[in-house]
Design a protein that fits this description.
Radius of gyration: 27 Å
CATH superfamily of one domain: TonB-dependent receptor, beta-barrel domain
Order of helices and strands: EEEEHEEEEEHEEEEEEEEEEEEEEEEEE
Helix content: under 10%
Distance between the termini: 18 Å
CATH architecture of one domain: Beta Barrel
Shape: globular
Largest sheet: 23 strands, mixed
Strand content: over 45%
Number of strands: 27
Number of helices: 2
CATH topology of one domain: Maltoporin, Chain A
Length: 524
């Protein structure tokens, strides 16, 4: 019987005038080997936290970039170091996750695994956010959760085996999966006020818990969005990896999912509405060829995936699952006795059955208020590369690069042919170089240096609104560490140049300025 326990407590401030995050994590793991064939592993992750949502700026529907007078985040006169909210607008959150795995060895070729996972999430409290408005102003808003809970349970049974058909070696996996999701969440909120985005703001401190309580007591909430639903997914799958030769392997897999959504639950009537069922197949094929065995591999794969969709199109036909098809090919090298490993891959992803707005050629009063059609398509193509090198004892280099070209192919005229505003930066890169003295009186002393790069990110990109960009950025980090016996001491600085930069997913989110952290580790 083996037991491992990890625990951590975090208390973090903010680079802005307000904001904090406190969390506690307790994560035990127990492995019990009942005999040579049967073992049981139990894991738990218990998280408790209280924090304020980091500052997030949205763009209201219909706002045009031309009316803002700025097309880039660094051109907007928004005070970077101001949070625009009070420190008492914190939210309480919790996650309780349990994992169990029962493994049984049938023979030296066959084994089974039974996996059980249970996840419970909880949130309660305000969530401040902002809208960017014209005339150098912003609106201050709240989206709170009230005793919201989300639970997921998954049970999976796998059979793993190795066998021969003639001289061909097969490695197979077959399994069944059951996934249950129960959501009892409430999202609600309202708008407090409109203030200047910089300079003198007399009501700056008014975005606090007392003001929100007064707002909801006098005006009520602006929106009320409950999410009470129950879904079940029943799946079966199988895959087989075949060695045609010692250097050539092929793989084929198939998964079938039957999705059952009971619909949204109305607490006032005690009934469900809007339920539906969908079944979809997902095939996968793969190929690996090693021209130099264990050192150089060429690979290719093709797979299909889907996302369940609810609702009906403008003719009343139920939506089908949204589907995606991905083809990928690449090369992986392991050279110089593993001192250099590198991977290069290219991919092409096509998405179909995308739901979009339907605009009839001639106005038709018989259509629904917001008619939709399910014929949209989207395509993403790209390249990913990674290099891990250890050219000298003590010297380690890790570097990565990716490029993604994503665009709507068949879509609303407002965005057709454009990059989606959820596609993030097309170019990204990361690197980290570290050196640890392998010998001498200062053995264990090391330095690390690296960073991240992201190109321009178009978070608004349409004919009607225009193009708004989060500028490209390069963030540089560094560390100094010293290892002695069972001890490790570390000092690390992130965003060494104290650079202002933004990330976002259709939003504008200011990121941390320079920070310094010190750490001490003891192994026993």
């Amino acid at each position: 019987m083996l037991l491992r326990v990890n625990t951590a407590y975090t208390d973090e401030g903010s680079f802005q005038d307000n904001g904090f995050g406190k969390s506690f994590v307790f994560s035990p793991s127990l492995l019990y080997k009942l005999n040579d064939r049967l073992s049981l592993q139990l894991d738990a992750e218990l998280y408790r936290g209280r924090n304020i949502t980091p500052t997030i700026f949205f763009f209201p529907y219909g706002l045009t970039v031309s009316s803002l007078g700025a097309s880039r985040a660094d051109q907007l006169p928004i005070d970077y170091r101001r949070s625009f909210f009070s420190d008492d607008l914190s939210q309480q959150s919790a996650n309780t996750n349990y994992y169990g795995q029962l493994s049984y060895t049938i023979s030296d070729k066959w084994s089974t695994q039974t996996n059980v996972t249970m996840t419970n999430s909880y949130s309660d409290g305000p969530g401040p956010y902002f809208y960017i408005l014209n005339h150098d102003s912003i609106s201050r808003n709240d989206q709170f959760t009230a005793n919201s809970r989300d639970r997921m349970i998954e049970i999976q049974q796998n059979l793993n085996g190795e066998f021969y058909i003639g001289s061909l070696k097969n490695r197979a996996v077959a399994g069944l999966d059951y996934f249950n999701h129960v959501s009892n969440q409430l999202f609600s909120g309202g708008t407090l006020d409109t203030i200047a985005s910089h300079g003198n703001i007399p009501t700056y401190r008014d975005f606090n818990r007392i003001s929100l309580q007064k707002l909801y007591a006098t005006k009520g909430v602006d929106f009320y969005y409950p999410v009470d639903l129950t879904t079940n997914t029943y799946s079966a799958y199988g895959s087989d990896l075949v060695n045609l030769t010692d250097q050539l392997m092929v793989m084929a897999a198939l998964r079938v999912d039957h999705f059952v959504n009971k619909g949204n639950y109305d607490v006032t009537t005690g009934t469900y509405s809007g339920g539906y069922k969908q079944t979809a197949l997902s095939p996968k094929f793969g190929l690996v060829y090693q021209p130099v065995q264990d050192h150089l591999s060429l690979f290719a794969n093709y797979q299909n995936g889907f996302t369940n969709k609810t609702g009906a199109d403008y003719l009343g036909r139920a939506f089908r699952p949204e589907k995606a098809w991905q083809a990928e090919a690449g090369v992986k090298a392991d050279l110089f006795r593993s001192r250099l490993t590198a991977t290069l891959s290219v991919y092409d992803i096509r998405v179909g059955n995308i739901v979009r707005a339907y605009v009839p050629a001639v106005p038709d009063p018989s259509l629904p208020a917001f008619p939709q059609i399910q014929d949209g398509t989207q395509r993403s193509r790209g390249v990913e590369a990674e290099v891990i090198a250890n050219p000298l004892n003590g010297l380690n280099v890790v570097a990565g690069f990716s490029y993604n070209d994503s665009r709507y192919e068949k879509a609303d005229a407002d965005v057709e042919g454009r990059r989606p505003n959820t596609a993030m930066s097309p170019y990204t890169a990361n690197w980290w170089i570290s050196y640890r003295l392998p010998a001498g009186t200062l053995t264990g002393l090391g330095l690390g240096f690296g960073g991240n790069y992201a190109s321009d990110n178009k978070i608004l990109n349409s004919v009607s609104q225009g193009v708004f960009i989060l500028p490209a950025y390069t963030v540089v980090n560094a560390s100094v560490f010293y290892e002695y016996a069972r001890w490790r001491f570390t000092i690390k600085s992130d965003n060494l140049a104290d650079k202002k930069y933004w990330t976002g997913y259709t939003t504008m989110n200011p990121q941390k300025l320079r920070s310094v952290a010190a750490g001490v580790s003891l192994k026993f």
